[in-house]
């Protein structure tokens, strides 16, 4: 075993028990609660909702004053969401339209999902359609610039957030996400935060992520829909890329 492999194994052992921090649920929950309304329940969609844990945390924070929706391709997850009172629907976020009217939602949530997708322009376009001005897109992704990934690259190792033999096809940093989301003025990043700090134990990781969010294991963004009309797809159509991206049904 090489020294790099031995160090990696030790780091994996050290971080054990802190993996849940990467999901940043308290961050997303509290941001969503900030959109609470007095006239009605807020409408929240979680794309790639899994078992519905993020939605349930939001509902508990708002004492039930939230209409919860999910988009989930895996039937057993949808069944579990149904048991929890969440209206989870089947769909392909990279090819299909979100089953909601224009401006029909208050919050769209994607936590640890975007890194698995290619067609970000289509996804952001649909989110921009279903959110009214002031609506929020809450996003959580692994941080490609996490301090431990920087250290791994420094010694010639593959960063853990973008393994070749792994499920992630995109990498995100704070400035990278900000530049993409704010392109052409359809969205504005109003806050970002970090959660988790491998391989430190939980109490230390929480403090470090708060002090140095851009170096944390997971990064989270509160992205607000502006009042600019049109579709985020205009960002794609005004630029040339050497790879093709999905531009919606023809």
List keywords for this structure.
seven-stranded mixed β-sheet; 250 residues; alpha/beta; globular
Explain what this protein looks like in three dimensions.
This protein is an alpha/beta fold. The chain has one domain: 3-Layer(aba) Sandwich (Rossmann fold). 33% of the residues lie in helices and 18% in strands. A seven-stranded mixed β-sheet has the order 3-2-1-4-5-7-6, sandwiched between helices. Helix 2 (25-33) packs across helix 3. The N and C termini lie far apart (54 Å).
- The tally of beta strands, per DSSP, is 7
Count of distinct structural domains: 1
Distance between the termini: 54 Å
How large is the share of residues in beta strands? Answer: 15-25%
Order of helix and strand elements from N to C terminus: HHEHEHEEHEHHEHEH
Q: What is the CATH top level name?
A: Alpha Beta
Return Rg in Å.
Answer: 18 Å
Topology of this structure?
Blueprint: H1 3-15, H2 25-33, E1 42-47, H3 53-61, E2 66-71, H4 75-83, E3 87-89, E4 107-111, H5 120-130, E5 136-142, H6 147-154, H7 174-181, E6 187-195, H8 202-211, E7 218-225, H9 233-237
Parallel strand pairs: 1-2, 1-4, 2-3, 4-5
Antiparallel strand pairs: 5-7, 6-7
Helix pairs in contact: 2-3
Short description:
With 250 residues, this protein is α/β, with parallel strands linked by helices.
């Amino acid at each position: 075993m090489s020294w790099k492999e031995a160090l990696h194994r030790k780091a994996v052992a050290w971080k054990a028990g802190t993996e849940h921090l990467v999901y940043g649920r308290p961050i997303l929950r509290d941001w969503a609660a900030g959109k609470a309304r007095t006239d009605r329940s807020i409408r929240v969609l979680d794309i790639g909702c899994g078992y519905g844990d993020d939605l349930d945390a939001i509902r508990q924070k708002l004492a039930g004053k939230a209409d919860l929706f999910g988009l989930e391709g895996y039937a057993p997850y949808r069944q579990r969401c149904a048991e929890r009172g969440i209206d989870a629907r089947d769909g392909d976020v990279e090819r299909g339209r979100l089953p909601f009217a224009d401006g029909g939602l208050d919050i769209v949530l994607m936590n640890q999902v975007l890194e698995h997708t290619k067609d970000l322009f289509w996804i952001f376009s649909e989110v921009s359609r279903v959110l009214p001005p002031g609506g929020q897109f809450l996003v959580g992704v692994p941080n490609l610039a996490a301090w431990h990934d920087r250290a791994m690259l420094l010694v010639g190792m593959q960063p853990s957030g973008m393994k070749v033999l792994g499920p992630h096809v995109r990498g995100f940093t704070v400035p990278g996400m900000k530049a993409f989301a704010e392109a052409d003025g359809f969205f504005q990043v109003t806050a970002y935060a970090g959660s988790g700090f491998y391989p430190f134990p939980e109490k230390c990781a929480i403090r470090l992520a708060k002090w140095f969010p851009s170096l944390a294991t997971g990064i989270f963004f509160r992205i607000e829909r502006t009042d600019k009309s049109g579709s985020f797809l205009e960002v794609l159509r005004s630029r040339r890329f050497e790879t093709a991206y999905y531009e919606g049904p023809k």
